[in-house]
Amino acid sequence: MTDAPGPLEPLGQPILDRLAFERLTTAHRRELKLHCYRMMGTLHEADDLVQDTFLKAWRRRAQFDGRGSLRGWLYTIATNSCLNAIKARSSAQRILEQPGRPPTEGRAAAGPAPELAWLEPYPDTELPDLVDGEPGPEARYETSEVVQLAFVAAIQSLPPRQRAALLLCDVLGWSALEAAQLLGGSTASINSALQRARATLGARYPQGRPLQRPRPTSEERLLLQRYMQAWQTADLDGFVELLREDATYHMPPWRDWYQGREAIHGFFSTVWGNFAGYHAVATRANGQPAVALYARRQQDPEWHAQSLHVIEPAGDRIASLTVYVGPLGLDLFAAFGLPHVWPAS
Q: 86 exposed, middle or buried (CB, 10 Å; 0-12, 13-18, 19+)?
């Protein structure tokens, strides 16, 4: 594959004990998990598929002759495992928004849809250190672009083979020939799949690519502070003021979603007082600022996990807000290393 063998390669030895194998593969765990997450759209499946990849690699270790790179071999196993897993499930994609559903006005009425496959956020603590895994020279996207929640949602709309081709070539920087060797078929078929995938993303991104996000700036940190303060002081107007006029708000697993500051204000005015107070904890997801929100009822001394908020900033305002609520949101706290109960101060 394109990436050159690392200092621990080749692996093709007649006998390799499990500890040596684990040392060789552990270095690639995080980037493989991120790859599986992009393919599947869910943390839990990504974890399972990385474990499956390493198990298959161990069982097939005699097949690896050391002429290629260990990293490329593991990506081959992981990608095929993802494609097989997608075939086996009822939905090929995970969503942030139910296809064809218009934005809601006023009170949320559609209700939760736990039966739908919802896209999950990805904790920044699990993002790989890409010093040894930077995209190849043929990659079309920057690393910061392809971890964003909106980008992962966009590629979920691609058929699985197109999704795999795009991730291998445009994200990892593999050549079309290398992708064809992995996915099967000709180089021409891979190039055709790439053209269709790029056209689909081009319709989502008029400029041809997602907005590049710089490292967190003082402006972004101030926005996050103001956002947390608005919740902790029950300042609904202050919260709405942080939104762009054309901001969007999604709340998986609820079908309802909102577009525009006025519509978002209308919704939150119906639910803002549901709790006696809120406690906000800063975190990060998909390379974006995020907040874990805890809430308490009257007479309750402790804060209980309530929702996980992923913020897409645009300067000093919020362009998009995705808030994971209900059981889906609560299940994410552990993945982000957060407790379900925050003690009273």
A: buried
* Domain end point (choices 172, 204, 236): 204
Q: Are 153 and 46 contained in the same domain? A: yes
Final residue in a domain of this structure, among 204, 234, 250? 204
The Cα–Cα gap between 8 and 285 comes to: 31
Compute the distance between CA of residue 137 and CA of residue 149 in angstroms, rounded to an integer: 24
Rg value, the chain, Cα: 22
Average pLDDT per consecutive 10 residues, the chain (345 residues; last block may be shorter): 39 58 84 96 95 92 74 93 93 88 92 93 86 60 85 94 96 93 94 95 73 72 97 96 97 96 96 93 95 92 95 94 96 96 85
Whether the bond between 112 and the residue before it is cis, its omega within 30 degrees of 0, is no
Cβ proximity of 148 and 125 under 8 Å:
no
- State residue 215's pLDDT score: 66
Q: Specify if 103 maps to a domain.
A: no
The range of the structural domain enclosing residue 139 comes to 18-89+120-204
DSSP state of 144: T
Query: How many residues appear in the chain?
Result: 345
Please give the distance of CA 170 from its chain centroid, rounded to a whole number.
17
The tokens 């990385």 sit on which residue? Answer: 50
Give the model's pLDDT for residue 144. Answer: 76
User: Do the Cβ atoms of 292 and 336 come closer than 8 Å?
Assistant: yes
3-state secondary structure of 206: coil
